[in-house]
Design goal:
Blueprint (H helix, E strand, L loop, with lengths): L20 E17 L3 E12 L8 E6 L7 H17 L17 E10 L6 E8 L1
Antiparallel strand pairs: 1-2, 1-4, 2-3, 4-5
Amino acid sequence: MADFLNLNLDETPEIHLLSDGEHELRILSVDLKDFQSDEYGPSQALNIRTESIDDEFADDVYHTIWLPRKSDTPKQRAKTNKRIIDFCMACDVEPTNSLEITQFVGQVIKANVGTRTRKDTGEPQNYIKALV
């Protein structure tokens, strides 16, 4: 005898993108990722996943912040450090030389959200254009 699940799939809400503009986002996760490129060598980045505070069926919004690399010029390092400082300030976290990435999870940030096409799938996705 077959088992059937009563899932009410016909009542599933549509997941959609946020409109472009300013939104409040809650940080769901922050992961440190390692990358290797021919141009820059080894690199690391913070991959940040957020969700809308006001729209429960909006797709998650992702943001990447690259960390300084050994090959960076002083100007590149200053620009990278400024992005990290801005992220800390948006999260109400004191920017220090030693940060625990888990302290960002649960923080609410204001961000200017835009839409772009994913390179790997060709699908549209939201991204953080700027922290407010």
